[in-house]
Write a structure and sequence with these properties.
By secondary structure, the chain is α/β, with parallel strands linked by helices. The protein has 6 helices and 10 strands, in the order βββαββαβαβββααβα. The strands form 2 sheets. Strands 1, 4, 5, 6, 7, 8, 9 and 10 form an 8-stranded mixed beta sheet that branches.
Amino acid sequence: MILAAGASERMGSPKALLPWGDSTLLEYVLAQARAASVEDIVVVLGPATRHLGATLGEVRVALNLEPESGRSASIRIGSAVLSDDVQAIVIQSVDQPVEADVLNVLFDALSGGAEIVVPTHQGRRGHPVGFTGHLLAELRAVTEQGKGLRAVVRAHAPHLAEVPVSSESVLWNLNDPAAYAAARGTAVQP
């Protein structure tokens, strides 16, 4: 699930449309999901990005037309369109671009029995976070007031697996122009 509905207030323009390599952040994130052979890609778009829906190829598009409602609303909206029998879910914000190798490691850990997987780089936890499909009902019910994904992670902490990766990208969070510029300067661009 790729979350691209945010208002991007700190960035000043939609993050999904920011240049990244030869494309945009959203196109890069989608390309990496496809390279990881993700079977069912759900993209949650908002008012500033909804026009992209027809250009994304074979993905399922969900709309959060009230991005000010928070990330949890986008997760609920995206989770609602996932199949009830989904086996594994990786939730990735568009401003957290990671390589296909990272996605593969997360999916492998989930298929190996972990309920929740978090990538780590040099001992620090990062993102995206992966969940086993049997947690779908909880993802469909997350709220900002209930602490969103953090509440699900805490509830299942004994069944969380940290997966070490070599990519620093799992620590990036491109919330503002400075963070974006720093990551863009260190990223291995496609």
